[in-house]
Automatic annotation (TrEMBL):
GO terms for molecular function: ATP binding; ATP hydrolysis activity. Residues 269-352 form the ATPase AAA-type core domain. This is Putative ATP-binding protein involved in virulence. InterPro entries: ATPase_AAA_core, P-loop_NTPase, Rad50/SbcC_AAA. The keyword Nucleotide-binding applies. Keywords: ATP-binding, Nucleotide-binding. GO terms for biological process: DNA synthesis involved in DNA repair; double-strand break repair. Residues 6-159 form the Rad50/SbcC-type AAA domain. PANTHER family: ATP BINDING PROTEIN, DNA REPLICATION AND REPAIR PROTEIN RECF. It comes from the Bacteria. Pfam families: AAA_21 (PF13304), AAA_23 (PF13476). It comes from Rivihabitans pingtungensis.
Length: 458
């Protein structure tokens, strides 16, 4: 089983030192803006590169760069690099070795100097190279999925497009190990997915036509193409269909050679015409499903469900309506039950779907930085409870009218609702657009009546 158990960071970006452990299935990182959530994901990305770079088709790397070294302020206002900078990862890769600890460190900030790896990191690369040799020998070995999906997953390649026009795929695209190509870069892979999925769909239609012309059953190749389509559509539908009604991702030559989705009310529409939230969800799931099938085609229709691995997702709730945020975690786990997810969020709706064991709160103090499990478990509670008790944010916004609201409440509780001061406060609040809950007014009036009747003070 492929699991990232923990990370230890030293002098990496904003952290002097940080230790963070991960849940084996799903971990959500939370913190205020600029407190290091994405930094932890990027550190995990660098750590996973030790494995991925063992494959010839890995693409762009993820190294500990000079720019990643923490800078400390000097009394004179300058900034000084703090060395050594180090990322230490602990985890297992299903290779029979058990848990290993591998590191990448940087001792120098000299231009063109390189980060250094410990022997365990080099062994991890060797393990990947061994898997590659087994794949080339035709062995049905399981290749774990590795994927990093940053916040630029929709836009890095320029204007989002779902065009899947006919292109000639490179020979390397037919290799199982091409499922690792650029899997840890900031660059979106959706364009590559569109080209590949369009080719799969066209090839499937070609096999269907041949079978009809020859009055024969669909060929083995045709069945494999159908299997690929089933894997991708099932994964996308698991995330998108219930939440939005859009379903059935497919290639349409008649719609300008684009990928389209279908809706019971709105008909068919190119993916690029859908909302950012839907496109984000499609891009996220399509990346995982298409890599899972490429890496492990021998798993067939179960490739997405049975492929193990590690997926890093920044802002998992990006562009999603709160109702969708309440289902995104369950949908990802349902579509990819064998993958360990490590994600970030600012959404209390997401947190309300998880127990405390799946949440890590990143905090900074004079004593240092920690990534701790929250004291309160927000699972199945109102999102306001997650907001207040896990994220440390008051459920009511800090607006100037809060004082007027409290003063009016005290007037009503004191049976002074119809006094001149209370009327003035109510008029001011009405003009601002504030609306009282009927239940609050009823409670305050009841307490005022109880007090007037000789009961205890409200």
């Amino acid at each position: 089983m492929t699991i990232l158990t923990s990370l230890t960071l030293n002098n990496f970006r904003c952290f002097t030192h940080l230790e963070v452990d991960f849940h084996p299935e799903f971990t959500v990182l939370i913190a205020p803006n600029g407190s290091g959530k994405t930094t932890v994901l990027d550190a995990a990305r660098v750590a996973l590169w030790s494995y991925v770079k063992g494959f010839d088709l890995a693409g762009k790397g993820a190294m500990l760069e000079i720019a990643d070294v923490r800078l400390a302020p000097r009394p004179d206002g300058g900034m000084e690099p703090q060395l050594p900078a180090c990322i230490s990862a602990q985890g297992s890769w299903g290779d029979g070795v058990g848990e290993r600890v591998w590191t990448q460190s940087r001792e120098r900030v000299k231009p063109r100097s390189n980060a250094q790896e410990n022997p365990a990191a080099k062994q991890l690369k060797a393990f990947a190279s061994q898997l590659e040799r087994q794949v080339r020998a035709g062995e049905a070995v399981i290749l774990p999925l590795v994927s990093y999906l940053g916040t630029s997953r929709l836009w890095f390649e320029g204007r989002f497009t779902s065009a899947a026009k006919e292109v000639t795929l490179e020979n390397s695209e037919y290799s199982r190990t091409s499922g690792y190509r650029d899997c840890l870069t900031y660059v979106s892979s959706f364009k590559a997915f569109c080209a590949w999925y369009g080719w799969v769909f066209r090839s499937y239609r070609e096999e269907q036509i041949l079978a009809l012309e020859r009055n024969q059953a669909l060929s083995d190749a045709g069945r494999r193409f159908a299997e690929v389509i089933a894997v991708v559509t099932a994964a996308v539908d698991a995330l998108v269909a219930t939440a939005t009604g859009w379903h059935g991702l497919e290639y349409r030559a008649s719609q300008n050679q684009q990928l389209v989705m279908h809706h019971p009310q709105f008909g068919s529409m190119p993916v690029e015409m859908l909302s950012d939230g839907i496109r984000n969800a499609i891009a996220m799931v399509a990346d995982l499903a298409f890599r899972a099938y490429k890496l492990n085609p021998h798993l067939g229709a179960e490739a997405a469900r049975q492929t193990p691995g590690i997926a890093l997702i920044d802002e998992v709730d990006m562009f999603l309506h709160p109702a969708w945020q309440q289902t995104i975690v369950a949908s990802l786990r349902s579509a990819f039950p064998s993958i360990q997810f490590i994600v970030t969020t600012h959404s209390p709706q997401v947190l309300s779907t998880l127990p405390r064991e799946n949440i890590r709160v990143i905090e900074h103090s004079e004593a240092g930085s920690v990534a701790r499990m929250p004291d309160f478990s927000p699972l199945a509670h109102e999102s306001g409870a997650a907001l207040a008790k896990v994220m440390g944010v008051h459920q009511e916004p800090p607006l100037a009218i809060q004082d007027d609201i409290r003063q009016f409440e005290q007037c009503v509780r004191a049976n002074q609702e119809h006094s001149d001061s209370a009327r003035a406060l109510r008029a001011k609040l009405d003009a601002a657009g504030y609306q009282f809950h009927d239940s609050d007014l009823a409670t305050w009036r009841f307490l005022a009546g109880h007090r007037a009747a000789g009961g205890k003070p409200a």
